[in-house]
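Quick note —
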Amino acid sequence: MAHEDRAHVGAKRTYEYLRQHVFMPRLWKKVKAYTATCEKCRKAKPDYDQPLDLIVPTRPPPTQLSTQCIDFITSLPECPEGTTPS
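Predicted structure written out below.
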């Protein structure tokens, strides 16, 4: 309950809040177990277990002072043949 009321601040902050307001044996263990199963926290937490994508080097510009653009948006739908995106 306190975890949701405190806006999903994680195990340490939830424990610090509860420690000031209630006494419960093995409070840290219970708070840590509860926050580990919180669905909202698990979805919002970054996943460091997945490997990062490989860095692909870009080709150097063909001439000096030419402009090179990089598009960071991925998985866009293909344009029909003969049209240009606006």
